[in-house]
Design a protein that fits this description.
Layout: H1 22-51, H2 61-70, E1 74-75, H3 85-95, H4 107-116, H5 125-134, H6 141-157, H7 160-170, E2 172-174, E3 177-178, H8 180-188, H9 197-206, H10 220-238
Parallel strand pairs: 1-3
Antiparallel strand pairs: 2-3
Helix pairs in contact: 1-6, 3-9, 3-10, 5-6, 5-7, 9-10
């Protein structure tokens, strides 16, 4: 009887798994590095906010740029007690009358600026400090977004007086002239602590356009604006809107 041989059933060869796309393999690493970069940036700014809550700001990006462009700048950091109180009131009256009543953003002013289509006028002193100290100048969405992120922590950590003190020491009062002490010396030949109400109002009046306006030789616009600031400084002193930075 003939033997019949059964054919062995061949097992199908296992399919080799296709290698993952390169993008998929690198995605976890990229996410990890992105998180590390963001945490590093956050830690950097957190450290600066804490440091500048007590120490003078040595220089900022814009001052460095202007120093290179002009071959030097005028600036001199002074303590709060070396600034005439009327100067602080004048700047608040001119730039941010509700400074003591908001948490960094003046929502009413922002809505009004949007309704009227104005590009300027909604930034508070707190926002301007963040821009001047930590960021760069320029009307880009990236800068505005960074400003919006950094303003609340600054308001949380710094006192209102500290915010105003830093602002008065870093604001631009003329081409290459930064801070109220340098401005008082440049325009009037006196220290900031000796500024009169009229001189303080004129300095505050040049802030929106410091490269064009002149506090020592005021034109009709600066004179008119100075008169408004003089009145506004008296008003905020009387109605309590200067209480957060005055004794």
């Amino acid at each position: 009887m003939a033997k019949t041989t059964r054919k062995k059933k061949t097992e199908p060869e296992p399919e080799l798994a296709e290698p993952a796309p390169v993008a998929h393999r690198w995605a976890p690493r990229l996410r990890l590095w992105a998180k590390r970069v963001l945490l590093g940036i956050a830690a950097f700014y957190a450290a600066l906010i804490l440091i500048y809550a007590v120490l003078p700001v040595p220089i900022n990006v814009y001052q460095a740029q202007e120093s290179l462009r002009l071959g030097g700048i005028e600036k001199d950091w002074v303590g709060w007690d070396d600034i005439a109180p009327v100067m602080a009131r004048s700047v608040v009256a001119a730039e941010d009358a509700n400074f003591c009543n908001h948490w960094g953003f003046d929502m009413k002013a922002i809505r009004a600026a949007l309704d009227e289509g104005r590009g300027r006028g909604a930034s508070t002193i707190s926002q301007q400090v963040v821009k001047n100290v930590f960021l760069w100048h320029g009307r880009t969405w990236a800068r505005k977004a960074a400003e919006a992120v950094l303003t609340p922590p600054v308001e949380l950590v710094w006192s209102k007086r500290r915010i105003l003190h830093v602002y008065l020491n870093v604001a631009e009062f003329g081409e290459g002239v930064f801070g109220v002490e340098a401005a008082a010396q440049h325009y009037f030949g006196i220290p900031a602590r000796d500024l009169t109400p009229t001189q303080a109002a004129r300095l505050a009046a040049v802030l929106p356009d410091p490269k064009v306006r002149n506090a020592a030789r005021p034109g009709p616009l600066v004179r008119r604006r100075s008169a408004q600031i003089l009145s506004g400084a008296e008003t905020i002193a009387a109605d309590g809107r200067a209480a957060c930075f005055e004794d």
